[in-house]
Structures are given as structure tokens and as C-alpha cells.
Automatic annotation (TrEMBL):
Pfam annotation, one family: CM_2
Top-level taxonomy: Bacteria, Bacillati, Actinomycetota, Actinomycetes, Kitasatosporales
Lineage: superkingdom: Bacteria
The species this protein was found in: Streptomyces sodiiphilus
PANTHER family: CHORISMATE MUTASE
Protein name as it appears in the record: Chorismate mutase
Keywords: Isomerase
Residues of the Chorismate mutase domain: 8-99
Transmembrane segments: none
Length: 111
């Protein structure tokens, strides 16, 4: 069976669900952009005060916190941890870049 062969009611429901997924994906992208704006500010603050780009204790607390949130939301905690680890790695990369080339306070925000 192909998608062109499905019942109109099924096709309409599939379209409605996919539209919701598209909206959620857009919201996730916007939330990540906001998160990275904040972490850029953290990176500049760390660079200005010669703090290391990574904070393993904070990262461990955040991972534990996110795993609990995932469990409560009935989302696989291992998936949530993988996602956060990916985000943390990107944040640390940004912080290392900022530490090598710190911007003056009040500089442009770049995700």
C-alpha cells in the first residue's frame, strides 16, 4: 500500500498529526536557540574570569535532573541523556571558542 492509496480520513488524521509534529519541531529549534543564547553569555562570563569551558559537576547534576524529568514525562531517560550530552558537547565547544577569542561584554549574541 502507498500513501496515495490510504483512506481520506486516515490521510486527514495523518496530516493533522504531522502538522503538530512540525509545530513541535519548530518550537524545539526556537527553544534551543534561546538556550544557546544563554550559554553564549555563560561562555563569555567564564572567559572573562578565566574559568574552564567545562563544568563536569554541573553537567552531572543536569544529566541527573534531565533523566528525572524524562522519567516523569514518560520519555526514555537514556534518550534524554544522549540528547543533553550532545547539547553539552556543543556548548563546551562554543565556550572553548569564546575562551580563545572572547568578545567584549555586550557583544553580539551568536547561537
Amino acid at each position: 500500500m502507498t500513501y496515495s492509496d490510504i483512506d481520506e480520513t486516515v490521510a486527514a488524521e495523518l496530516g493533522r498529526l504531522r502538522e503538530s509534529i512540525d509545530n513541535i519541531d519548530a518550537a524545539v529549534v526556537h527553544m534551543l536557540a534561546e538556550r544557546f543564547k544563554c550559554t553564549q553569555q555563560v561562555g563569555r562570563l567564564k572567559a572573562a574570569h578565566d574559568l574552564p569551558p567545562a563544568d563536569p559537576a554541573r553537567e552531572a547534576r543536569q544529566i541527573a535532573r534531565l533523566r528525572r524529568l524524562a522519567e516523569n514525562a514518560r520519555l526514555d531517560p537514556a534518550f534524554a541523556e544522549k540528547l543533553l550530552n550532545f547539547i553539552i558537547a556543543e556548548v563546551i565547544r562554543h565556550h572553548e571558542t569564546i575562551a580563545g577569542h572572547p568578545e567584549p561584554q555586550g557583544g553580539p549574541d551568536r547561537p
